[in-house]
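Sequence design from tokenized structure. All designs in this work follow the same two-part layout: the structure record, then the generated sequence. An example of the structure record is given first.
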């Protein structure tokens, strides 16, 4: 049974490599209709990501302040947890920024 699971795991990890080993496709034509939609998708995606991340950070900070008001002795642990959560939320906005830059530079 262990050998079967090992082979299945290796097959799952190896199959995407075959897809990536394909020959490179022709570059997109710069005068096509894709360019304006790439800019539009980047702008809308970045706006939604920034807005929702801002809402999430506000809710996290509000919850941390509320928890600190209820138990002032736990302020250090609550603050550490809040900062860790805010860093993860901010990373989502940065990932979307990288995706938006890739969309803009692609066309």
């Amino acid at each position: 049974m262990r050998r079967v699971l090992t082979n299945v795991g290796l097959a799952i990890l190896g199959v995407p490599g075959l897809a990536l080993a394909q020959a490179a496709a022709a570059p997109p034509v710069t005068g096509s209709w894709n360019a304006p939609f790439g800019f539009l998708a980047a702008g809308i995606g970045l706006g939604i990501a920034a807005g929702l991340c801002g809402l999430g950070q506000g809710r996290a900070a509000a919850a941390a302040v509320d928890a600190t008001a209820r138990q002032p002795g736990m302020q250090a642990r609550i603050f550490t947890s809040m900062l860790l959560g805010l860093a993860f939320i901010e990373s989502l906005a940065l990932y979307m920024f990288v995706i938006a830059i890739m969309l803009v530079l692609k066309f």
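Residues 63 and 89 are 15 Å apart (CA to CA). We note this feature because it recurs in several other targets discussed in the main text.
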